[in-house]
Automatic annotation (TrEMBL):
Domain Response regulatory, first and last residues per copy: 581-695
Modified residues (4-aspartylphosphate): D632
Source species: Salinarimonas ramus
InterPro entries noted in UniProt: CheY-like_superfamily (IPR011006), HATPase_C_sf (IPR036890), HATPase_dom (IPR003594), His_kinase_dom (IPR005467), HisK_dim/P_dom (IPR003661), HisK_dim/P_sf (IPR036097), Sig_transdc_His_kin-like_C (IPR004358), Sig_transdc_resp-reg_receiver (IPR001789)
EC number(s) on file: 2.7.13.3
Protein name from the UniProt record: histidine kinase
Catalytic activity: ATP + protein L-histidine = ADP + protein N-phospho-L-histidine
Domain called Histidine kinase: residue spans: 339-551
One Pfam family of this chain: Response_reg
Enzyme class: transferase
Transmembrane region(s): 20-42, 289-310
């Protein structure tokens, strides 16, 4: 035993070493990638914040310049007034005009007119006759007198006549006559409008805008209006001196660190500023550091998880390959089973035709004693072939309205065969029909899967119960509850959580594919319902399929669905009358001749054809065209039985057509088009009824 353990340990080490290397190889680039992405994210987010702040400052500067320029334009127009012509201005009439302008633009606090002697000759704020002081801003006055150009000045005031003691902005234009600047017209503008511009900008929370005039004094600050008129901070002034725009560090009046973007107007010297709290500005850095750390941790966790899952994958790969191989074998077996079932159905068809003929010609009790066991054996063979067909189709059928009660009752013999002799089967079905839209092939397979699981769970024998009832489920409405329960040891809790997962199985390798309960779950979901599983502590397990009920009054079940198709309207064949001409089409000679013999015995004039081409040739002869056609659904050649039926229907509308099939996915389509369908081996009494000859004695 020790050498075996050594070999196992060595093999485990050989597997573990590349996994460790794989983990390390994956960890390094992942960590570097996480750090690089974090750093790039930091730079990008901070760059975006800087660009947004600069954009906000540009927008504020543009709005301020636009606002002040509009007032400067008004003042320039006013300077052209004829009231300033002549040797002395008409101050009385000018006062009336200035009063009207002040009423129209309340932001203009006052209008002042100064002469070349640097004396005020008019001030709209004071009453006429009041002595006026000299010019307050001599530098600005002299600049206008020298250059003759209008300008947006800096802050001034509050001035000798101020009522609130607050500084104002000044706008100056020259009054020029005959090429000479005679006066300077000044508008003193309130700063309230500038504050409105600042507060009207849609800036992120915490960001603070403010304005600085050309002399370096605070012109507007929405967050600190009490500081308007005071000198700006050193960092702001230094930044303005270094360029017309940029980013600089600083502090708020409360001492909080900020990063500020600014834009300065080259003509006026005014500048707009937008401050970002340093905590907000650095937030991307903090987040990025966290992302780097989280990325590294995630890389460790993911790499470890990947290594663990990869190791499990290595261990499970062979089992999964075997499962796929088994599934492929089952698929191949299903195709073979379908072909075998088709051939056996043809044989049983011939046998049942012979039994029907013997019964018609020898209806005595002595012969019946021999015929009845033969018929029962053939019917049992029919059930077996239909079970094979249920496996072979693999869910390719479509959903049909199915009476679950009748369908499960019909499956009971096959369900009993799926269990061993030491397992008792109880089937509990209600009396009333329960109709649901289901794929009957998948329903059959689901029940067989559940019984197979129950059988394997009880190697020492037990009991299985199949029950069907109705209930109302939240989200599904009225449903049929189809339940399969057993008396086995039960299902562990950890298995219950994964029981419906594909390829999950608790059986030994080679004993199960792990697809049985997955198929049950898929079937229930495809029917618009649900599947659930329960296992009480005392043992046993119950699997329920919840299937929504429909309002349908008719149902079809499996291959027998076709038998429920409405019978065509045909003329009844009385015992003394000939029954008309019928064409029998089938590529199997034994099936064709046995069916023809049965119909001929009923009194029909029978014509035979081996394929669709021969059948159409019969109709092309234009003499005594068949009134009825019995054709196989699957035939060799380009035309199927359904194609033939449509061609005959188009050529001779009154022809009664019955389709016969033993193995075809086209049966549901044929039934949908209204053709009656019989499943092989044919119920010959039903065939006689469809052709209008039921109860007719031997010819």
């Amino acid at each position: 035993m020790v050498p075996w353990l050594g070999v196992g340990h060595e093999r485990s080490a050989r597997v573990r070493r590349p996994l460790i290397l794989l983990a390390l190889a994956a960890l390094v680039p992942l960590a570097l990638l996480a750090a690089g992405l974090g750093f790039a994210t930091l730079r990008q987010q901070q760059e975006t914040m800087r660009e947004d702040a600069l954009s906000g400052a540009r927008g504020i500067m543009a709005d301020v310049e636009r606002e002040l320029d509009s007032y400067l334009e008004v003042l320039s127009i006013l300077s052209q007034s004829p009231l300033f012509d002549g040797d002395a201005p008409d101050l009385e009439r000018f006062r009336i005009l200035a009063t009207r302008i002040g009423a129209a633009w309340p932001i203009i606090d006052r209008i002042i007119l100064s002469d070349r002697n640097e004396r005020q000759v008019f001030n709209s704020f004071v009453e006429p006759g009041t002595p006026l002081p000299p010019v307050v801003d001599l530098e600005g006055h002299r600049r206008i007198m020298e250059t003759g150009r209008a300008e947006i000045g800096d802050l001034t005031g509050p001035g000798p006549f101020s009522a609130d003691g607050l500084p104002r902005a000044t706008l100056r234009v020259p009054v020029v006559r005959e090429g000479e600047t005679r006066y300077v017209l000044v508008a003193i503008v309130s700063l309230d409008r500038l504050n409105e511009i600042l507060t009207g900008r849609d800036l992120p929370e915490g960001w603070r805008p403010f304005l600085i005039d050309g002399t370096g004094r605070l012109a507007a600050a929405a967050a600190a209006p009490e500081l308007v008129g005071t000198p700006a901070g050193e960092n702001a002034l230094a930044a303005r001196a270094s360029g017309l725009s940029g980013i600089y560090p600083g502090r708020t009046p409360a001492g909080d660190p900020v990063v500020t973007a600014f834009v300065q107007h080259p003509r006026t010297g005014w500048s707009s500023h937008v401050s970002i709290p340093l905590t907000l500005y650095r937030e991307p850095l903090v987040r990025s550091a966290g992302l780097v750390a989280l990325g590294g941790l995630a890389a460790l966790v993911l790499t470890g998880t990947f290594a663990h899952l990869f190791r499990r994958e290595l261990q499970a790969s062979r089992e999964e390959a075997l499962s796929r191989e088994r599934a492929a074998r089952l698929e191949s077996l299903g195709r073979v089973a379908g072909g075998v079932a088709h051939d056996v159905n043809n044989v049983l068809h011939v046998v049942l035709a012979g039994i029907a003929l013997v019964r018609r010609h020898h209806p005595d009790e002595r012969v019946e004693r021999f015929l009845q066991p033969m018929k029962e054996a053939a019917e049992k063979g029919t059930q077996t072939t239909r079970g094979l067909l249920a496996f072979s189709r693999g869910g390719s059928g479509s959903k049909v309205a199915t009476d679950l009660v009748a369908h499960v009752r019909g499956l009971e013999p096959m369900l009993r065969q799926a269990l061993r002799g030491d397992i008792a089967l109880a089937v509990d079905l209600p009396a009333e029909p329960l109709v649901a839209e289901v794929d009957t092939t998948q329903l059959d397979l689901a029940l067989l899967n559940l019984l197979s699981n129950a059988r394997d769970a009880m190697p020492g024998g037990g009991a299985v119960r199949v029950s069907l009832d109705t209930r109302t489920e939240s989200g599904l409405g009225r449903v049929a509850r189809l339940c399969v329960s057993d008396t086995g040891p039960g299902i562990p809790e950890e298995v219950l959580a994964r029981a419906f997962e594909p390829f999950y199985t608790t059986k030994p390798v080679g004993s199960g594919t792990g697809l049985g309960l997955a198929q049950v779950y898929g079937f229930a979901r495809s029917a618009g319902g649900a599947a659930r599983i329960a296992s009480p502590r005392g043992g046993g397990a119950s699997i329920e399929m919840l299937l929504p009920l429909t309002e349908a009054t008719r149902a079809a079940s499996g291959d027998a669905a076709a038998d429920e198709a409405p019978s065509p309207a045909v003329k009844r064949c009385e015992s003394s009358d000939p029954c008309g001409r019928v064409l029998v089409v089938d590529d199997n000679e034994a099936v064709r001749t046995s069916t023809a013999a049965f119909l001929a015995d009923l009194g029909f004039d029978v014509v035979q054809a081996a394929n669709a081409a021969e059948a159409l040739a019969v109709f092309a002869q234009n003499r005594s065209a068949p009134e009825m056609v019995v054709t196989d659904l699957v035939m060799p050649g380009a035309m199927s039985g359904l194609d033939l039926a449509e061609a005959i229907k188009a050529r001779a509308r009154g022809t009664t057509i019955v389709l016969v099939t033993g193995y075809s996915d086209a049966a549901s389509e044929a039934a949908r088009r209204g053709f009656p369908i019989l499943a092989k081996p044919v119920d010959f009494d039903r065939l006689a009824s469809l052709l209008g000859a039921e109860g007719r004695s031997a010819a």
